[in-house]
Amino acid sequence: MTRAHRGDGEPGRCGARARPAAVAAIAWCSVTAVMIAGTALAYRLGGAPGLKAIVQEGPISDLALTFYAAAAAWLVLGAFVVLLALGRIDSESAVAAACFLAVSLLYLGFIRERVRYGDVADYVHAANSLVRGEHLPARYLYPPFWATLLRGLVPHGTRTIFDVLWISNLLSLFALFFLLRATLRRYGFPDRLAALATAGFLLVNVPVVRTLGYVQVNFHVLNLMLAAILLYPRTAALSALALALAAHLKVSPMALVAAFVVARDWRWLAWFVFFAAAIAGWTVAVSGAYPYRDFLTNAAGLWSRDEPSFRQFSIDSFVQAIFVALDRGYDLMPYVVFPVKIAAAAAGIAAALAHRARRAFADAAGAEGAVLNAAPALFVLMVLLQPIAWPHHCVFLAVPFLVVMKRLDTEAEWIVFGAAYFLVFLMPVHDFYPWSYGRLAALVVWLALSWPLSRRTGNGGCFARAGACLHSTRRDPPV
């Protein structure tokens, strides 16, 4: 008797046996339908009070956030099961799917437990100020584009704005997994190694936790910057649009424009100028020109602070902390800060040019290779030159710290890199001078370490062995 007649998953006299994944998908869909129907019935019979019979708000909880987190976890699991049933998850994609599942479920569990948030209040206040025609709050240190986007939600209430930002931030983290993985593949990481490196980076990461905890815009900004790299050079216009949007959420992404200047892609630069002007024009048309004046005023006020914050690790804060400790010479601070920043900028640009000339991180040639190889140092530079650098800004350092691992070879190099990585991504946030400026030191270490590594040809031994262990005979699809 053949297999088809034994009923081992093929049609025959005994019929086909459903695959376990298909059964699981059907069960998930059935349970989901029962959950929706039960909730709808409770509401139909008793209205909003009737839902209290099946819903409780536990201690130190927020009912809406609990629902969002639980629903998102259920949907992520369901998507995994359905894709498995449809055969879209195979031996090649299983590692990436498992890594995403681990990252998403970890942070869904974490974020459900948090009921107090930080910077999101500044976004809400800025949007409300625009609706009332008032000046932007002094704490709002961003271009007015983000507040202008949010002003449409103001009539629906503060809680609606918060919920939208909370959900979009979580979805942006999910998108970051796929965009960062795709970016690593552009830098020559094998598919499975790219998935594991992305998951390893996101699973234990203080800046990621703090970005979620403050509902910051960092994920949106980083995703747009990664999109600008991934879309280039196939679609110069969309690549330029992505970076223009990022630069209107925060000014610091402008540093990445230098990569396209290095590539001498004047067409891309023309698109960027066009989109940046168009976004600014739309913002002015909706909210007026005064929010830009407020933004410049608020940004200028950064240098008038009397006391440094040890938690933020910028060059400005570090120099200010030294003068405060000496209790003298405050009027000399600008004459120290700006030369140090000029030196840092020169070192970062020099590193970017060297990396581009030596193809330090990517083997691509032409304009694409110039952008890919110059970008890591520019990511470091954008954080290094910020007048305020909070620990959650370190999410922007994902690309430089991951791609430099390709070139690490000796034990000493791994120890130095490991120490810098620990200070940036693993060390809990603290306010102890001067140790809290370890993140600043780590950025200097990255620049110093990347310079000699860029002279090498070929990848480091650890990277090569890891790629060989995870090697697949199936060719990676194009990004």
Model description:
The protein has 479 residues and is mainly α. The chain contains 21 helices and no strands. The protein has helices at 3-6, 20-51, 63-85, 94-112, 120-132, 145-150, 158-186, 191-203, 206-214, 218-231, 236-249, 257-262, 266-287, 290-300, 315-326, 333-358, 366-384, 398-403, 411-426, 438-453, 461-469. It is globular, with a radius of gyration of 25 Å.
Distance between the termini: 46 Å
What structural class do you assign from the helix and strand content?
mainly alpha
Indicate the proportion of strand residues: under 5%
Q: Output mean pLDDT.
A: 89
What integer value in Å does the Rg equal?
25 Å
Number of strands: 0
Describe the main β-sheet briefly: none
Shape type: globular
Write the layout of secondary structure elements.
Elements: H1 3-6, H2 20-51, H3 63-85, H4 94-112, H5 120-132, H6 145-150, H7 158-186, H8 191-203, H9 206-214, H10 218-231, H11 236-249, H12 257-262, H13 266-287, H14 290-300, H15 315-326, H16 333-358, H17 366-384, H18 398-403, H19 411-426, H20 438-453, H21 461-469
Helix pairs in contact: 2-3, 3-4, 4-7, 4-8, 7-8, 7-10, 10-11, 11-13, 15-16, 16-17, 19-20
